[in-house]
Request: fold
Amino acid sequence: MLYEVLIVVYLLVALVLIGIVLIQQGKGADMGASFGSGGSNTVFGSSGSGNFMTRTTAILATLFFLISLTLGNMTANREKAVDEWQNLEVPVAETVPATDVPAEETQPASDDSDVPN
Reply:
């Protein structure tokens, strides 16, 4: 149960981290603001969203790596499922048990004398 919850949280953190990184401006984006392009007027103030975005990215990246390590550790300690294709030397006919079929189903009908006219 914990494994599945961590997988979902891992996926959500990864998607939010991708979104936050794509929203951020590049280092050279502030250069245009000094020449009057108006890039410094943002929702987060004149200094831009640098502190908020940088802090959020760092927290999400830390969560991402911690969950990655935890999931890797949990996966390494799990028992592997038995693979049916591991032993390819044994023919399939030997590995599949024969099913018991009732005798009535295997015998063909003898004639139509039982059918009323």
In short: The CA atoms of residues 40 and 46 lie 5 Å apart. The mean pLDDT is 76. Helices lie at 2-23, 29-34, 50-76, 92-95, 103-106.
